[in-house]
Amino acid sequence: MLMRTDPFRDLDRFAQQVFGAGTWSKPAAMPMDAYRAGDEFVVCFDLPGVDPGAVELDVERNVLTVKAERRPLPTGDDVRMHVSERRLGVFSRQLFLGDTLDTEHITANYDAGVLTVRIPIVEKAKPRRIEIDGAGDRREIKA
């Protein structure tokens, strides 16, 4: 079952506001969508305000790691912050990929604050038709 809401999310947000993002806190998760489109698996990560040079994408065995850093705005003597709600620092997310995905041919694109990762599905995992010979009849079924 997919849990669409996290009952502790508001408590976590409150704790972050009160105690701040210290070194003891875990990196913030980045929102994502994941879906299959034809012969590839697509994952989209929201990273608004993150410079493309501050995004890292690594694969080790079957684990895809996305790490991004949103850096603070330039400051100076004439700058006074009135509201600061956007989280700064390192954001990280790990996905465990199944054996049906081709980790050797992953591609990524970053556009308008969205990192799109495309992972091809291996040939052996794609659906195929298998012929069945019967008593005088030849039928095809989809495996």
Automatic annotation (TrEMBL):
Signal peptide: none
Domain SHSP: 23-135
Lineage: superkingdom: Bacteria
InterPro entries in UniProt: A-crystallin/Hsp20_dom, HSP20-like_chaperone, Small_HSP
Pfam families: HSP20
Similarity comment text for this entry: Belongs to the small heat shock protein (HSP20) family.
Protein name: SHSP domain-containing protein
